[in-house]
């Protein structure tokens, strides 16, 4: 079953430079094609020294992002005291912040494969790393421009330039689980089910956070939840968990679609099949029986299901109706069904969904968006 709903996706952008052309998210200044080369086989971009001495590669979308983490894997080795390269925050005028690789005398200073800038509104934190996992703090600075230019740069008229292997951007370093109550235990697991970290929601709080910087900003794994007074954990399915993701705990029963052969299919895992079944055929409408199941050891009360908007449109909500099950056939169709009493452990509740075909040619499209909102209270 799925008990976590993804409320905000943390991933913003990444580039491994494995294409023959520069991603349109970047903006080169000055716009001179001779100042960079792409190697899609190796997966690199090479920013070249030249005239003018400063070359910038702006990531335009970061201008409006107030909080983010920008990581850069690079291989710049300065050959001269007049050469430097790195990450820049620029105010469109003469002021800027630099996290740079440069040469001081005969010693290369700050020559690390990984550079990081973390923005928290007007405060910027700088880090460096040898492996992109363990980070050391360089410092923190305030920068008052609310919409600065942010990107990469090289400075110098001659030299080997800056080779960049990877850029990745997330909303933050942490994945957050919200909607918790005091005493809820949350474990971050790897894909083998081995705990990576454990958090317990404390008094006065409603969330916990895990720093994914320790795991390369992404984890192929799962989350385990132990509710207060519960004996057994509820383990989420394995998924890609990314830095900046925000999940909300929603302990709800599972829903299954019953096909024409009487086989049940979990909607979480067969959503496309369900939508395909509902939208195909030549009939004026399609019906399907939905089975709500409680796979947990506790019980649900106040179970209620209603039609809802989806993808910020209610255009097709008028085409969807649901009805309680009446000995294997639909009851009276409407917009809401509910169950009296409790849905005990292992129990089921059945209802029907009906999707009418769009008959107005001016409104018909290749996609139909609709939502189903389920509410219930779980008691361990």
Set down the secondary structure blueprint.
Layout: E1 4-8, E2 11-15, E3 26-29, E4 36-39, E5 44-47, E6 54-59, E7 67-74, E8 84-90, E9 96-104, E10 107-109, E11 114-120, E12 123-129, E13 135-142, E14 149-155, E15 162-170, E16 174-178, E17 185-190, E18 195-200, E19 207-211, E20 218-226, E21 234-235, E22 239-242, E23 246-249, E24 254-258, E25 264-266, H1 271-279, E26 285-293, E27 299-308, E28 320-326, E29 329-330, E30 336-338, E31 342-343, E32 348-356, E33 371-379
Parallel strand pairs: 16-23
Antiparallel strand pairs: 1-23, 2-15, 3-6, 4-5, 5-15, 6-14, 7-11, 7-15, 8-9, 8-14, 9-10, 11-12, 12-13, 16-19, 17-18, 17-20, 20-21, 20-22, 24-25, 24-26, 26-32, 27-30, 27-31, 27-33, 28-29, 28-32
Major beta sheet, specifics?
8 strands, antiparallel
SS content category: mainly beta
Return residue spans where pLDDT drops below 50 for at least 5 consecutive residues. Answer: none
Please, what is the average pLDDT? 88
Distance between the termini: 16 Å
Instruction: Please estimate the helix content.
Output: under 10%
State which percent range the strand residues make up: over 45%
Count all strands and give the number: 33
As a whole number of angstroms, the C-alpha radius of gyration is 27 Å
* Count of individual helical segments: 1
Morphology: elongated
């Amino acid at each position: 079953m799925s008990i976590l709903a993804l409320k905000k996706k943390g991933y913003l952008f990444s580039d491994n430079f494995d294409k023959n052309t520069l991603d349109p998210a970047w903006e080169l200044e000055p716009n001179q094609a001779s100042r960079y080369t792409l190697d899609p086989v190796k997966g690199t971009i090479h920013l070249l020294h030249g005239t003018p001495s400063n070359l910038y590669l702006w990531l335009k979308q970061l201008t409006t992002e107030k909080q983010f983490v920008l990581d850069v894997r690079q291989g710049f080795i300065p050959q001269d005291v007049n050469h430097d390269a790195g990450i820049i925050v620029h105010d469109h005028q003469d002021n800027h912040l630099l996290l740079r690789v440069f040469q001081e005398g005969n010693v290369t200073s700050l020559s690390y494969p990984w550079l990081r800038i973390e923005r928290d509104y007007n405060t910027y934190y700088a880090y460096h790393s040898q492996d992109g996992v363990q980070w050391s703090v360089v410092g923190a600075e305030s920068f008052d421009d609310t919409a600065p230019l942010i990107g990469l740069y090289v400075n110098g008229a001659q030299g080997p330039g800056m080779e960049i292997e990877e850029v990745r951007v997330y909303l933050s370093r942490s994945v957050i689980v919200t909607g918790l109550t005091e005493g809820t235990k949350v474990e971050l697991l790897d894909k083998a089910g081995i705990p990576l970290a454990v958090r317990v929601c404390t008094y006065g709080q409603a969330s916990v956070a895990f720093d994914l910087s320790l795991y390369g900003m992404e984890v192929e794994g799962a989350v385990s939840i132990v509710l207060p007074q519960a004996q057994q954990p509820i383990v989420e399915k394995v998924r890609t968990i990314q830095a900046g993701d925000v999940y909300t705990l929603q302990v709800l029963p599972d829903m299954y679609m019953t096909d024409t052969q009487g086989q049940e299919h979990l909607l979480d895992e067969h959503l496309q099949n369900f939508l395909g079944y509902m939208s195909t055929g030549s009939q004026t409408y399609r019906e399907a029986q939905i089975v709500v199941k409680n796979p947990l050891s506790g019980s649900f009360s106040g179970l209620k299901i209603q039609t809802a908007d989806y993808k910020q449109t209610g255009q097709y909500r008028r085409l969807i109706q649901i009805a309680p099950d009446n000995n294997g056939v639909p009851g009276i169709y409407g917009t809401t069904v509910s169950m009296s009493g409790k849905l005990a452990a292992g129990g089921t509740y059945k209802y029907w969904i009906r999707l009418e075909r769009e008959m107005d040619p001016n409104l018909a499209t290749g996609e139909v968006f609709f939502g189903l909102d389920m509410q219930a209270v779980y008691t361990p």
